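User: I've been going back and forth on whether these two constructs are worth ordering. Before I decide, could you fold them both?

Assistant: Sure. I'll take them in the order you sent them. The first construct and its structure tokens:
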Amino acid sequence: MTTTAIPAEARRAPAAAPKRRPRREREGAAWVFLSPWVLGAIVLTLLPMAVSLYLSFTDYDLFSPPKWVGLRNYVQMFTEDPRYWRSVATTLTYVAVAVPLQLALALVVALALKGMKHGKGFYRSAFYAPSLLGASMSVALVWRAIFNDGGTVDNLLGTGGWVNKPGWALLAMALLTVWQFGAPMVIFLAGLQQIPAELYEAAAVDGAGKWRQFLSVTVPMLSPVLFFNLVLQTIQAFQVFTPAFAVSAGKGGPADSTLVYTMYLYDRGFVASHMGYASAMAWVLLLVIGVVTAVLFRTSRSWVFYASEGDR
């Protein structure tokens, strides 16, 4: 009887499966990689917020120790400071003008780019460029020169400098924000490219024209992207500072027509050295932005359409 030799490799015992590291050890490694972010969030965000909240209940001028005054800053803000309410009204007007105009222009340009067959990349980059440059002080100063007495707008229209007229200065500032429509435009363009072409074909078969297709197909399918842009641009509009500072030369004029909320906060905190009062203003702004965002999310249930959820 013949015996078949078994290879040495086959006679070896199977290799043991690698042991998994204990869960606690794996969590420790995760915290090591997360530690730079956690440290930055604590030192650069949470700690300054806590200090700001404390200062909002104090009288602090940046040079002497803060003195606890309780709710005095908030009471003075709401009942004794007319410029505060002017800054609130100016900010609300700015948000109501700049955000809709910016989103409308971004959507129109995105629709135009979607239909282009050649040069789409070039025009997309060209229209996006102002979003990268517009937040800089240098561009804001150029914008002020364009709308100043003897500037480009004055020479073309003969209306005088907008930045020197109380009724026009805020509009000039809002147009600077509208000009920076590149970021929402790119988001709109991405959303438009995700809409199935079959929906437009079906609408055309049913006899829908371009305008009806836009209202019945584009707007509902694009509503999540529209809501996303609306929330982001609204939050940014409430915090506008650089255009107002440049257009008004840091004074909020003429006649407080460009005195937006952050400009007045800057004036109280760093010009008048009322840092406690400015901290109180900052916390009120945070709460207002939170409330406005919550309202937008609440109302979105009635007009934002998600295809995965079906008809509402």
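The second construct, handled the same way:
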Amino acid sequence: MRRLGTVQQKIPCVFLTEVKEEQSRKRDGQKFQVVATGSVNPAALEADVDRALATEKLDGTCCYVTVYKGQPYLWARLDRKPNKQAEKRFKKHQYSHRSFIWNVEEDFKMVPETWIAAHRVQHHDGHPVPDEHGHIPGWVPVEKDNKQYCWHCSVVDYEVGAALVLGPDADDEDLLEITAVPLADLMEQTLELIGTNINGNPYGLGSKKQPIHCLVSHGSVRIRDPPPVDFQQLCSWFQESPEGRVEGIVWHCSDGTLVKVHRHHLGVMWPEKETCFGDRSVVIRVDSAAEFYSSKDLFRSFSRLNGRRLSRLQDIQFDP
């Protein structure tokens, strides 16, 4: 089985889906939404989803660690998307169900020279092929002090090759811990960046005055006693179970297949006022004796809380 947490492509829903022409619950201004039917996706059945490992789908932005400039680097998700003219043609194609041929050189918006396509993106004549949504998933390296990716920058220190990672404690899975992890230990992993300025901050991390961001390795937050892959039972679990106060579930199947469901697929609102993840206890283990905190505010702030245990993740506060 592949290492858990390698999210390079859009993960399909565990159920077959359909598009409804109504206001999206997930994206403002989107006049349609993708909803789950009651039928389990055949791909999930073939991958034996009932025996898969269920993990929490976190609400953040996807990142990737791989080599850049000869060292491990954090990369931000940047999907290459069509320009307005090509997008109009593509939408007409979607409604007419006629064949559609992309001209990648002319139809797509420019991306930085450092952009790379995600793993398993198909290529034709040397060019990446768009997926069924008309996007080309990819990554760009998070350069030091890049203002566009300032929150990504805050969780890495390239001088010593470390990242601030939040995840379950090795000895107590109920307890979360924040540690400074060598980027070399995260090579070829994907992670979720969560925090104050990401997706409305559903987990209540930090504040405008003291923003807090962390990386969470995909597949690291397991769900105990997950509900069966059944439409009604999942709906009930999300709405009634204390453990169901999550954005969604990602199932990691034994053959490496990933499938997911999030609340919007089932017509259940998100975020909750109190999330399961934000309510978990956390311990800070960022060594104050380390050398790499002089230039990185977030690292330095966490090092001052080294050894501190808090009853809830959202209770983390730094001294003025």
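Notes on the second construct follow. The mean pLDDT is 88. Residues 84 and 188 are 33 Å apart (CA to CA).
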